[in-house]
Specification:
This protein is α/β, with parallel strands linked by helices and about 280 residues long. The protein has two domains: about 160 residues, Rossmann fold, CATH 3.40.50.1860; about 110 residues, 3-Layer(aba) Sandwich (Rossmann fold), CATH 3.40.50. Helix content is about 45%, strand content about 15%. The strands form two sheets. Strands 4-3-1-2-9-10 form a six-stranded parallel β-sheet, with helices on both faces. A four-stranded parallel β-sheet has the order 6-5-7-8, sandwiched between helices. Strand 7, helix 11 and strand 8 form a beta-alpha-beta unit. The protein is globular, with a radius of gyration of 18 Å. Bound molecules: D-glutamic acid. D-glutamic acid binds next to helix 4.
Length: about 280
């Protein structure tokens, strides 16, 4: 009886979502859409972004600090809403946790395998994600004969953060990055970085209609919903809280974060609180 009561109490706790900065908001946005009753505590590591060009050791250390902070917020589950953190740190961090944790890579890899018809999947991401070969590892575990072609696109993150979502400069760079993938005959392309869904239309235009784009943010929200259902942790009790159910924390530049967040989220963010993540 006691356990059931605790589970009910736990189900009304927030989900912790973290990223190196603003990119994970594309994942938070999908969670807000697909499971609107859930509360979210979001942490963006805006003082230490980018993670994509840092080492595995550094990204793992940062991820552990963030997870400690989120646990202090009494979250019931954690989403590593960052491809680089999912690639480098997820396995090690989740070992230390007694609550469920998921990343964005596995859900994206799974749906790409389900989507491809010709067994040729492209993956684009940061240098860290692509260098780790995490997507090809997961894809080949599920489907040994699938060919995975990977390409790091480091300039996409700053272009997105500069707001150049639809711009000739972004078109030109996308053509250069994507030409080898197009020539190799992929029919599916994973947007393996949190920022890339925001330039989805540019990428789609360059690769053409014959290539299906996979957005791991969407799949991750779906997987989170399934996981919470399975664990009896879906929040059924509270509805219609709107923006009050979301709390945002950053490690620096709170105003800039807020402006970016308000450009992509449905709910206006009134404040993002700055914390010193080095204390964790
Ligand atoms: N959030 C990161 C990712 O998805 C991109 C930004 C960064 O390099 O930190 O890999």
């Amino acid at each position: 009886m006691e356990i059931i009561k605790n589970r009910e109490e736990l189900s009304s706790a927030p989900v912790g979502v973290f990223d190196s900065g603003v990119g994970g908001l594309t994942v938070a946005r999908e969670i807000m859409r697909q499971i609107p009753n859930e509360k979210i505590v979001y942490f963006g590591d805006t003082a230490r972004v980018p993670y994509g060009s840092k080492s595995k050791e550094t990204v793992t250390k940062y991820s552990k600090q963030i997870v400690r902070f989120l646990q202090e917020q009494h979250v019931k589950a954690i989403v590593a809403a960052c491809n680089t953190a999912s690639a480098y740190a997820l396995d090690e961090v989740e070992k230390e946790l007694d609550i469920p944790m998921i990343g964005v890579v596995k859900p994206g890899a799974k749906v790409a395998v389900e989507t491809t018809q010709n067994g040729r999947i492209g993956v684009i991401g940061t240098e860290g994600t692509i260098g780790s070969h995490i997507y090809s590892t997961y894809i080949n575990e599920m489907s040994r004969n699938t060919k995975v072609l990977e390409k790091a696109c480091p300039l996409f993150v700053p272009l997105v953060e500069e707001g150049l979502w639809q711009d000739p400069v972004t078109d030109e760079i996308a053509k250069r990055y994507l030409s080898a993938l197009i020539d190799s005959g992929i029919d599916t392309l994973i947007l393996g970085c949190t920022h890339y869904p925001l330039i989805r239309s540019t990428v789609g235009k360059i690769v053409g209609e014959g290539v299906t784009l996979v957005n791991p943010a969407y799949e991750t929200a779906r997987e989170l919903k399934g996981l919470l259902e399975k664990e009896g942790l879906l929040n059924k009790s509270e509805q219609g809280l709107g923006s009050n159910q979301y709390r945002f924390y950053v490690s620096d530049m709170a105003d800039k974060f807020r402006t970016f967040a308000n450009s992509i989220l449905k709910y206006g963010i009134l404040s993002a609180k700055t914390i010193n993540i080095e204390n964790y």
